[in-house]
Task: structure prediction
Amino acid sequence: MIQELENIQIAIFASGNGTNAENIISYLKGISNIQVSVSLIVSDKENAGIHDVAFKNNIPIFVIPKSDINIGDEILKHLKNHQIEFIVLAGYLKKVPVNILQAYERNVINIHPALLPKYSGKGMYGKHVHEAVIENKETESGITIHFVDEIYDNGEIILQEKCNVLSTDNAETLGEKIHQLEYLHYPIVIADILESKMNVKKND
Result:
């Protein structure tokens, strides 16, 4: 997928406030070993905080229309128009259309706020995950960064990081622990994957 060694164009898909997206954008601006541009943000929400992140960073945002059009084709058109080579899901709650996964095979990654395969699947996101972890009296939770396939939270795992769940934790305090793991590890994993892809391309 990567066609230019000098600059990699990536897209971030997000549905919420965009804190993970903003952290990723900031991190990628500060690295020097590879040139990466977040060239497009895709959201399924018209009024989510991710719009403020896009505006502040001067990044175009495409809002997926709520209509009967072929959504996959519409998104793919925008990805191609912006020469996107890699896709990062950062709090994106919809399934990625199959045609996009086929066009970007092993070039779409996601972060999940639990230790997969636990607490996975449709409806398992954010506080819903943390509430389930607390209810089941788990002693640890964490994050899973994985490639995206056609099944929710099912793709090949890239990295897992754990944190302790204390008897005094609630969904909010556990959520904060998970956010800190996300902020620390997700940008590094993204940069490492892109650097590896560039090195493979150079050696071809």
Observations:
- Strands lie at 8-13, 36-43, 61-63, 86-89, 108-112, 140-147, 157-164.
